[in-house]
């Protein structure tokens, strides 16, 4: 059987993560109804969705099917052109037709930077100022990146292992960075410098990423340290001479603010202790050996929690230290949002209708009353009601918090009459005032009964589907109506009119009553 295939466009530009439809027109040029199978070849099958892979096209009909392209927004979806072939095969004859197109994946850019460790230090005698800068390309294009560092006071010097590096999509690269203060005085106070490391694309300067870290500049001695050393030395001599060393403890939290239900690390450092007691809002969270360690604590309520720590040695307690942990309520889970619309609100029985839907913040969605699970990556579904009437289609979506969102749309299905009036004519359809004979001709298909009436007589053909004609005497303007009724009692009708001209009155003579005398003629009455 002969048929042809045509694409609505041969270039489909797709943003990664978005869905783009493509219309495919199949023209059945044969003499019989045919079933066709639709396939898309040449590209990843996960990039395409074919709602109806098999469809039927009547003889001489032009049928349009839609397929959808959705390229995942991942670094594996490289930017570029991907040729594909749409293959349509006749299931009756086995013949196949193809149409070629190109999917153009547009580039997107997403770079991340991480610096480790987040804090270092630098002193004349000891330093930890080497950082690892890790760059991850989560986009779908290659980038050559220029690395640079800066700080608000311009007090630091930066030495990168490589000042430029190329990162492919999905690739992660690390480079060593040494940061040092520009000057290192022998005697001064400690200073903390914040700095940032940025990576800017050479090809696209507006694409960049950055991360921040700190470095502490420690002098060999500070004035306070020098004085403290002297005092500690003197006090230490007196202390050791007079008193035993008491226990001490310091407290630290891995985070000062968390959400309810999240874990926070409570750590401590002790000296001269054999026992440690940790309390949270007055309730014991740890009571055990006085070694340096920590516990994981999960707050069960919101607000500010007071954490107390105390060390003991020979039943002698140290001074208690406290810290405050702020606990917030976790952010709410977004509720699901759905909508559904019908492309046509009224259809004929046997036709299909496309339902367009949107689903947000949901884990799954179903179409009722069919119970069909809807793919969240698509936005339309085709349904075909089996009977006439009004049908309500409802989309039901379930969110991550198990909340449910619904939306409805109604579609009316009409069962039209199957009978068709193929021809209905009158010849001639105009007469002068004398009238005449006119022939009424008709042809009907799928009829169980046919009636032709002129307002006075009704003609019922024996064979309602056979072509017929009848001659009528026309003496005045007459309207003819044909009514065709199918086997289900549904009917269609058509009306034609034959016009008959009005009679023409003869002109009045000079002697006729009411006639106007000629101008200049003799006056009636004969006066002298």
Notes on the structure:
It contains one helix and 44 strands. The longest helix is centred in the middle third of the chain and has 20 residues. The C terminus is likely disordered. The strands form ten sheets. The protein has a six-stranded mixed beta sheet with strand order 12-11-19-18-14-16, with no helix packed on it. Strands 21, 23, 24, 26, 27 and 28 form a six-stranded mixed beta sheet that branches. A five-stranded mixed beta sheet has the order 2-9-8-4-6, with no helix packed on it. The protein folds into five domains: 103 residues, Immunoglobulins (Immunoglobulin-like); 113 residues, Immunoglobulin-like, CATH 2.60.40.2310; 83 residues, Immunoglobulins (Immunoglobulin-like), CATH 2.60.40.10; 78 residues, Immunoglobulins (Immunoglobulin-like, Sandwich); 81 residues, Sandwich (Immunoglobulin-like), CATH 2.60.40.2470. With 528 residues, it is mainly β. The protein is 4% helix and 55% strand.
Radius of gyration: 46 Å
The coarse silhouette is elongated
Q: How many distinct folded domains?
A: 5
How many distinct helices?
1
β content, as a range? over 45%
CATH topological fold name of the largest domain: Immunoglobulin-like
Query: What is the count of β-strands?
Result: 44
Helix content: under 10%
Structural class: mainly beta
> What can be said about the biggest beta sheet?
6 strands, mixed
Q: State mean pLDDT (0 to 100 scale).
A: 87
Secondary-structure arrangement, i.e. CATH architecture of the largest domain: Sandwich
Low-confidence stretches: 521-528
The strand line-up of the biggest sheet is 12-11-19-18-14-16
The CATH class designation of the largest domain is Mainly Beta
Terminal residue distance = 105 Å
